[in-house]
Amino acid sequence: MDKISKKIKMIKNRIKLLRKKFSKFNIDGYIIPKNDDYFGEYAKTDRLKIISEFSGSAGFAVILKKKNHLFVDGRYTLQAKKQSGKNFHIYEIPKFFPKNVYKKKLTLGINPKLFTKKILNIYFGNNIKFKHIENDLIVNKITKEKNKPFFNLKNKITGETHNSKINRLCKILNSKKTKYLFITAPENIAWILNIRGYDNPNSPIPNCRMLLTNRKKIYLFAEQGKAKKIIKSGKLTANRVFHTKKLNEILYQLDHGNIIIDNLSCSIFYENIIKTKFNIISEIDPTYELKSIKNKTEIKGMIKSHILDGVALTKFIYWMKNGNKKKITEIRAEKKLEKFRSLNKEYIYPSFNTIAGSGPNGAIVHYRATKKSDRSINKQDLFLCDSGGQYKYGTTDVTRTLCFGKQSCDIKNIYTKVLKGHIAVASADLKKYNNGSKIDVLARKSLKESGLDYSHGTGHGVGFFLNVHEGPQAISRFNSVKIREGMILSNEPGFYKEGKYGMRIENLVFVKKINNKIFFENLTLAPLEKELINFKLLNKSEKDYIFFYHLNVYSKLSKYLNESERKWLAKLI
């Protein structure tokens, strides 16, 4: 039996074992999400992969008595078909929600620690009855967190003290006549306390929860020993730090009053505990909005990080196109890029798993090269590389599409239309196009004129030495959050032809203000693929944009490059 057949059989056996438990709990099916109980992007225990083999960063499965369904967004439909299609019917969100698929009344089992009320309402509506099963039906033993303690960031890196951030949050609580804020998203606690941790593979996340009172009192809930450096620094005293299991006990010691819980990350499990004593106000944690506006120190750190990252990426692109005689595979390219980044002592680790897709693999939006899928990058291939880094004072995320030989007029025209969309976003009038949904239209305009489109959003918010994907701002059809000075977003339109190729152009931008005018300023510094541009399709302002962008790349990076790299980069201006 080959490896693929073994995997299919293994998944079938796992589903069979799960179904055997349905009668015990009197349920028609069971829902398995991607997230863990901290609702982060990178789950410490990946239940969805265990039951489906799907390894993407978002999605959920519904196992019924006779059918298996996997719901993913447009980034992952091709990947899901490849990894799980033999055992699951794949549905693309938002084209299909479970509430549109399941017409009969069903009782579905859930682990209440893994779902919020809002998530269930959005996806399942009112037609489904949920049965809470606290003993997880997918895993018996949860993967233990790393034992490394959280660490502090200095004020000269963060640009604002933790006390200042707490004061701002307490002003919000008092304005809402609210006594308490229960913070369940670890990245928000990281921002408030100016701490980071080691609990995620690609983000410096400190897994913990926190209760803040309107009188600036803090109760931090974390695993034993994780907070010892925070206590030593004087940010918190030992009697303000509690084991996660003590949450129930502490809550019952507090006075009654209004409490804000985050409807994005406060699980049904915790909500049920809290509502027995407090008057719940369920809304988005106000920390998200405060965190999304970067201060001048954070912006400076991000600019510096992008110069370091730009050097590594530019050296990599030169190596890919000029400096290498051996056969390059996707995995070899990925390792080489990591080596270039690692040459800088400020670099820590990737901000997400590198996407290095050649030819047809590039059409899989969030492709991950494996030993089985690894391809040699041929001269006729397009090569899509989406990568990023965590630096000591910033987070990066950049995509470039490269070619190594003459491409067809059709491919060049499509790439140019993607580029036109990219430039339209970068040059947008932010007074007129003042939110993500309005800007998203600009990104797709040129492609749509040719009947083309892409199935993902155009951009996401980005954290400061935190999550590479961060809200509430985004550039997408569905995001109406106002674009404000200090926000950082990605600008990444693309196009994908299944079985053939993928192309995407991504820069990070920040919102800058000069003389009452706000506009996007590029952070990312790396050359564009000029060999894929049909300049006849560009107007003067678009040609000027490309010229000045490459001039800026050269002026910022040239002193860090060797003579051959400098000469090559100069020719692109």
Defining key terms:
6-stranded mixed sheet; 573 residues; 34% helix; alpha+beta
Could you give a short description of this structure?
The protein contains 19 helices and 27 strands. The chain is of the alpha+beta class and about 575 residues long. Helix 10 links the parallel strand 11 and strand 12.
Write up this protein:
- This protein is of the alpha+beta class and 573 residues long.
- The chain is built from 19 helices and 27 strands.
- It has a six-stranded mixed sheet with strand order 4-3-2-1-5-6. Strands 12-11-10-8-13-14 form a six-stranded mixed sheet.
- β5, α6 and β6 form a beta-alpha-beta unit.
- α14 crosses α15 and α16 runs antiparallel to α17.
- The protein is globular.
- It starts with a helix and ends with a helix.
- The model has no long low-confidence stretch (mean pLDDT 94).
Q: Please identify the structural class as seen in this structure.
A: alpha+beta
Helicity level, as a percent range? 25-40%
What is the mean pLDDT? 94
- Give the termini distance in whole angstroms: 55 Å
Report strand %.
15-25%
List low-confidence stretches: none
The count of β-strands is 27
Give the count of helical stretches: 19
- Spatial ordering of strands, largest sheet: 4-3-2-1-5-6
Described by strand count, sense and barrel closure, the largest sheet is: 6 strands, mixed
**Rg over CA atoms:** 24 Å
Shape: globular
